[in-house]
Amino acid sequence: MTVAVEELTVRYGRRVVLNGLDLALDTGVHGLLGPNGAGKTTLMRVLATVAPPNGGGVRLLGSAITGEKELRAVRRQLGYLPQTFGFYPRFTVREFVEYFAWLKEMPAARIPVAVDRALERVGLLDRADDRMKTLSGGMQRRAGIAQAIVNDPRLLLLDEPTAGLDPEQRVAFRSLLRELGVDACVLVSTHLVEDVAVACERVSLVDGGRLVFSGTPAQLAAAGGDGDAGDSAIERGYTAVLRAARA
Ligand SMILES: Nc1ncnc2c1ncn2[C@@H]1O[C@H](COP(=O)(O)OP(=O)(O)OP(=O)(O)O)[C@@H](O)[C@H]1O
Fold it and tell me: Where does this protein have coiled-coil stretches (predicted)?
């Protein structure tokens, strides 16, 4: 398993945000759904080794993160697009992605080709020499996706990557996701259930800091019925699973 999480607990002060969550993920594209405040970003941050858990076990790429050595080894093979991310506004797009390649300790000789390839994959190669601050919001997010994939990560964590993308870019991004999921374990959090239906092989649903569903998009869709709120089968499944979890 690329990701093996057992009984994961995260607290902020007295508030328990992840409450004994179990999750196992292997190669492929996995969707992460859940209402606002369910704990998706918190889970992503733990998997990205940004936030330490308060309890439970986390194994990434086959190893428990027990010290600096494991941490560095995992970070070299990790890609992470945070929900919100900062950048030096005067960096060019190419410099922004190069900087992350360097942080991930990529061999210097490989960086120029890898950066151009990542920018090409998100459709930003023609803006490579523009400054980050001159890009539109959706383009900045695509630059964020480029930095996440520049090192060909084995574990790729994308927190709401399609927020702000126009329909054409969303379609292009879904096919990029499917491509990435052939070799890597990709976890994508989103509120767009159609992204999950089209681009993900498996989907996990989190509510109140717990995993309440794990299965294929078709299984989630099948959980819903005519009486459930939603405009598509998978939205009705989402509503039905949440209702059952809260009952
Ligand atoms: N730094 C923090 N300090 C205190 N509470 C926090 C902090 N970060 C998150 N929380 C709380 O943790 C809970 C889960 O937040 P999280 O951002 O993980 O949810 P989410 O599922 O990603 O939500 P959304 O869909 O709105 O992005 C929320 O109740 C939130 O208020």
Answer: none
Sheet holding 202-207, edge to edge: 78-81, 155-159, 185-189, 28-33, 202-207, 210-215
| 34 Cβ closer than 6 Å to some ligand 1 atom | yes
Please check whether residues 89 and 8 belong to one and the same domain: no
66 and 172 part of one domain: yes
ipTM of this complex: 0.96
Pocket-testing residue among 10, 15, 33, 41, ligand 1, by greatest number of atoms within 8 A of Cβ: 41
Tokens of 167: 């329909």
CA of 26 to the centre of ligand 1 (A): 25
**Element (DSSP H or E) covering residue 22:** strand 15-25
- Number of independent structural domains in the chain: 2
For residue range 17-52, what is the model confidence (pLDDT) as tens digits?
999 999 999 999 999 999 999 999 999 999 999 999
Same domain? 184 vs 240: yes
- Can you tell me the distance from the alpha carbon of 37 to that of 42, in angstroms, rounded to the nearest whole number? 9
Q: Could you tell me which of 182, 147, 178, 144 has the C-alpha nearest to residue 160?
A: 144
